Amino acid sequence: MRRSFPLRTTLLLSGACLLVASMLGVSAAQELTVPASVTAGDETAISTTGSGAATFYLLGPSVSRRNEVSLGQEIHLQARELQNAGDYMAILCSGTCRSASFYVNAAKPASVTFLVHPSRVPTGQSDAVSGVAFPFDQFHNLVLVPKTINFQLTTGNSSVFSQPAHTRDGVAWFRTASGKAAGMLQVVASLDDLSAKRAVQQVASDPCNLRIQGQRTANGIVVETEPVHDCAGNPVPDGTIVTFTATDASGKDTVDAPIKKGIAKAQMDAPGAVVVSAASGVVMGNEVRIGAH
Amino acid sequence: MKIALPLILVAVTIGLMVVAFVGPGHARGTVGIAAGSALSGLTPKSDTPGQALDNLLVDVQRRNWDRAFATLSKTSGSDEQSFIQDWIGSSGSLRSFSNLEGFDPRPLHITNDEAQMRVRLHFSTPVGPIEDVRDIHLVREGDVWKAVWPKFQAPTVPAEVIPVNYLRWDLVTGTADDQWGSKNVDGPRVRIISMNPVDSAEGAVVMGEVVNEDTIPAFVNVNATLVDGAGNPLDDESSFDKIDHILLPKQVTPYRIDFPGFSLKDVKNVRMDVKAALVPASADPVIGVMNQKLDADAQGKNILHGDLFNESGQTVNIPHVIASFYDGNGKVVWVADGYVDRALLPQSSEHFAVEVPRSLAGQIHNFHVVVNQYSLGRS
């Protein structure tokens, strides 16, 4: 009975023999030397040894190139071929093939991308404002080399927060409390001569000490708040709703009145003696009693 | 025999047509289509109060205003124009878009010469069916009964100038540059401040309140998902129109989410999700809710009623009332809503009423009413 090798085993043995043969052949035919470090956007060269013609391949994050070269001469890589940071592979084939890889680093920072959250924050909140900055080079490669970014928060002309932060894996960040005063908070991230500015609107927090007063008029009663402020003394923005509730023996009147020019005001029928209260969101105000007409 | 069958068919057809014309008005009309005149002479004689009321309401249903007005008693204080306006509304109100679908009359009190009838009117409207109850007085004039129709007093608004410190929020899209992170404006911060799932006769109900904690207006919608013991979603519903969608800063709205046909005994968990988007909005009009009172009406139903007062200078075409009811611990035990079918003219009032389930009447210690409003030509 005659026994033969299976087809798969035959192919594997054949491939292994060819690989060994090609490696022996390459080592004898050509050498390929790539630069140790390359910066994005810089020209560089790959040196070769040997003689005769060969085919050169360059594979990278955004490049794929093939051209004929002469062994023994340098292969020039142009700046535009190396604009994207990352791993590149150079392959040189002349009968057999030889390959080498090199890494292209990001160039020096050319811009800082800066995200700040939130765009609007109530005053006096801890850990309420955060920002994250990413340095990029002119080719939009994230700069992974550690850099120092200065975060500065200012309101008006006064600085409320300043902190240098080192980038780690291309990212630097901060987190801080919101200020006490309502208004625009300027947030700047600067790296050397680069900077990015963002604005956070600091708004009044919940109303504090909501107080109302009322009086009877010919048409019923008129109730109004005193100027509405938060606990830090910032005026609560116009348009904020204050709910007035007048309760008497016959029923209840309610009016959702917006604050206008710092004061919310409502008119109600309420012919009898009433107790009027006010609330804004989940904040309650005082009660006033107004006698019957 | 050849002509017998066609004759029978013709006779049956004519018979059905007669029944259709002279029959009582319990049959529903077609929504949005004003029917024409009935054939004269085919309307049953109004020899009873019930028949007189039927005849009147059938004519109203068919928008046969001349005939309907002609059946009214001469002692009525109404003129035809105000009678028509009473039925079809004005100023773009919900009644203007409604159609009388049917009616259920029942006698309250009848003597030889006078009768008091209560009729439950069923209207179809763009926001769903709406019921109205009216008590109608009828008198006997000769051998026929006629309804006494009081003159409809449409609110009149005097010519005046109402100063408004117009408060409005507009949205501006930044155009400075396209850099990443430079044009973001955060959405409004809203929060669910209470949530209470209950079983009702129609199914499970999830209700509570939402507050806009921000300093800008928010368009709010609340969604809820019922989850069973295995973690599988049973149903997913939204608050739809049982919420005041546009919340101004620090405004609170009730919400109610219905899950028809579901029972809480099958539910292990309820997932809540409140979505808020930044929208342009106006702080006007301001609508006061006056004379709110929880009472039992003539039919024994528990009703929260009151008056809406438009404090602004703009007409509110369709007012919508949403009320939350609290128990002694301040927990929301029910949320009810109702549309007002009359337009709310500037500086004028309209009555509203929302029904409270009989089973909850004893639990209710307090309530809060918010008014949602739809105005033609404005967002």
Task: Please tag this protein with its features.
heterodimer, A: 293 residues, mainly beta, Immunoglobulin-like, 5-stranded mixed β-sheet, rod-shaped, disordered N terminus, B: 379 residues, Nuclear Transport Factor 2, Chain: A, 4-stranded antiparallel β-sheet, 19 strands
Oligomer: heterodimer
CATH arch. level architecture of the largest domain in chain A: Sandwich
Molecular shape of chain B: globular
CATH topology of the largest domain in chain B, by name, is Nuclear Transport Factor 2, Chain: A
Helix fraction of chain B?
Answer: 10-25%
- How much β-strand is present in the residues of chain B? 35-45%
Averaging pLDDT over every residue of chain A, what do you get?
87
Sketch the major β-sheet of chain A.
5 strands, mixed
Number of helices of chain A: 1
Largest interface: A-B, 42 and 40 residues
Indicate the mean pLDDT of chain B. Answer: 86
First-to-last CA distance of chain B:
68 Å
Low-confidence stretches of chain A: 1-28
Distance between the termini of chain A: 124 Å
Using only C-alpha atoms, the radius of gyration of chain A works out to 37 Å
Determine and state the CATH class of the largest domain in chain B: Alpha Beta
Secondary structure category of chain A: mainly beta
Question: What is the helix fraction of residues of chain A, given as a range?
Answer: under 10%
CATH architecture of the largest domain in chain B: Roll
